[in-house]
Design a protein that fits this description.
alpha/beta; Aldehyde Dehydrogenase, Chain A, domain 1; Aldehyde Dehydrogenase, Chain A, domain 2; 2 domains; seven-stranded mixed beta sheet; 15 helices; 40% helix; 21% strand; binds NADP nicotinamide-adenine-dinucleotide phosphate
Length: 487
């Protein structure tokens, strides 16, 4: 792996991994370039795994599987706990790495490292509480005994928008359950994953239990791994489009799938909401990671009586944000991940403007170096514009006016997605009543941030299958085994 001087200067060299991590060995290589999204300049180059490398990773995960499964839960728990502690000790270096390769503002990157590490702490605790069941048959003649066993080798595929947290949200429960894993991080942000693997090694994760590989051929190596009968789990976080392709591929060998896919979160503000609280929540729900979050508020539905004040308040707040490279401590809104991401946002905004929307701030990409799009507020957006159907994944807040509760519910549910939704109202009864009718896996009531390692994270409809985090997250990596016993 080669590094750009700037990268070496910012991040602790102790965290500079050297490439593929298979069977506890580091293998250097090149082929995948990592760019600084605030300039487009080269940051580092990492190894490009071949199908043979992926097969070696499955061999390594298989060789380690029996030993890890037999390792007492307490011991697995302590290794995860040490990994949590090491991530916490190295939080600043990890945050800097994330800010460098992903571009998010340092404050967001620090928040991500804390959130990511918490999955190791949470699953260190859950490792020792794996549930079983003992029941009576309805006839009363027999007993039903249910154990949970590790599902087997798990392939974990993660996106670039949370390079640390999306990995720990999978590795934590998988290791706690007794599974060995192969992690394939996104090509744009592999450095964080390798740095975390270094810390895992230091925490005492045995060779082969966690393997990490980067590749320019994600489809090819994933298909090869899914075709291997030893692989029994695919846990994917990414776009709904790629999720659909992977579900079809996994069907060929009936591999168990957990899917954390795209979102199109409605953010509903009722007339009776506390305006300042709603604006604070809107800024968090929209601007965490500069809008590059699956839970990001994608459509603001604001009731007629509070609409104008909300648009004015949101515009003032969005206008005041300072743009810059994520690693500059003053930055509040970093660059987008790629030029393509900027192009997509530009297309959605331009189409909305052409259809009659008005930008109260922002509205066109910046022309400087790097992949920047300015914080933007749109009002008077037609409810059927493409910006209401597609994930924006950027710092753009389209606001739509509504009159009645029923109208808000109908608009909110008018999407193939169902990951997250937000409601702002002082009337909790109303918020709960409306919330029950919103098709979503997660609902924030007067809260703009809902992610918590102790809560089940996931979506309904085409936002995914299964849940990560919480007490059920570990069961995604386990199979129940029923013992029918006569005695
Ligand atoms: P993406 O394009 O779907 O990529 C996600 C991962 O899949 C990357 O590691 C990518 O590798 C890999 N990949 C791409 N094509 C593949 C294939 N044919 N076979 C196997 N792997 C393949 O998504 P993204 O742009 O990185 O992330 C943004 C999306 O993730 C958004 O839709 C967002 O909503 C979603 N997301 C969801 C959650 C959630 O919890 N529900 C959380 C975060 C993000 P390469 O990088 O090498 O292409």
């Amino acid at each position: 792996m080669t590094f750009h001087a700037k990268f070496s200067g910012y991040a602790d060299p102790a965290l500079h991994a050297v490439g593929l991590y298979i069977g506890g060995k580091w293998q250097s290589g090149s082929g995948i370039t990592v760019l600084d999204p605030s300039t487009g300049n080269l940051l580092a180059e990492v190894a490009d795994a071949s199908i043979e490398d992926a097969q070696r990773a499955v061999d390594a995960a298989d060789a380690a599987a029996a030993g890890w499964r037999a390792t007492p839960a307490r011991q697995r728990s302590e290794i995860l706990r040490r990994w949590y502690q090491l991530m916490t000790q190295h939080a600043e270096e990890l945050a800097t790495l994330i800010a460098l390769e992903n571009g998010k503002a340092l404050a967001d990157a620090r928040g991500e490292v804390a959130y990511a590490a918490e999955f190791f702490r949470w699953y260190a605790e859950e490792a020792t509480r794996i549930p079983g069941e003992f029941r009576h048959t309805p006839s009363g003649s027999h007993n039903i005994l249910v154990d949970h066993e590790p599902i087997g080798i798990a392939v974990l595929i993660t996106p670039w928008n949370f390079p640390a947290a999306m990995a720990t949200r999978k590795i934590g429960p998988a290791l706690a359950a007794g599974c060995t894993v192969i992690l394939k991080p996104a090509s744009e942000t592999p450095l964080t994953a390798y740095a975390m693997a270094r810390l895992g090694e230091e925490a005492g994760v045995p060779p082969g239990v966690v393997n990490v590989l980067t590749t320019s051929n994600p489809g090819g190596i994933t298909n090869a791994m899914l075709a291997d009968p030893r692989v029994r789990k695919l846990s994917f976080t990414g776009s709904t489009g790629v999720g659909r392709v992977l579900l079809a591929e996994a069907a060929k060998s009936v591999v168990s799938c957990s899917m954390e896919l795209g979102g199109n979160a409605p953010f509903i503000v009722f007339d009776d909401a506390d305006l300042e609280v709603a604006l604070d929540g809107a800024m968090i729900a929209k601007m965490r990671n500069a809008g590059e979050a699956c839970t990001a508020a994608n459509r603001f539905y604001v009731q007629a009586g509070i609409h104008d004040a909300f648009v004015a308040g949101l515009t003032a707040r969005m206008k005041s944000l300072k743009l810059g490279p994520g690693y500059d401590p003053e930055t509040q809104c970093g660059p987008m991940i790629t030029q393509n991401a900027v192009r997509k946002i530009d297309r959605l905004v331009s189409e909305a403007l052409a259809a009659g929307a008005r930008a109260t701030t922002g509205g066109k990409p910046l022309t400087e170096n790097g992949y920047f799009y300015p914080p933007t507020v749109l009002e008077n957006v037609p409810v059927n514009a493409s910006i209401a159907r597609e994930e924006i994944f950027g710092p753009v807040a389209p606001v739509y006016k509504f009159e009645s509760d029923d109208e808000a519910i109908r608009l909110a549910n008018n999407t193939e997605y169902g990951l997250a939704a937000y409601i702002y109202s002082r009337d909790l009864k109303r918020a709960m009543k409306v919330g029950k009718r919103i098709e979503t896996g997660m609902l924030g009531i007067n809260r703009g941030l809902m992610s918590d390692p102790a809560a089940p994270f996931g979506g309904v409809k085409q936002s995914g299958l299964g849940r990560e985090g919480g007490v059920t997250g570990i069961l995604e990596f386990m199979e129940p085994k029923y013992f029918a016993v006569d005695y």
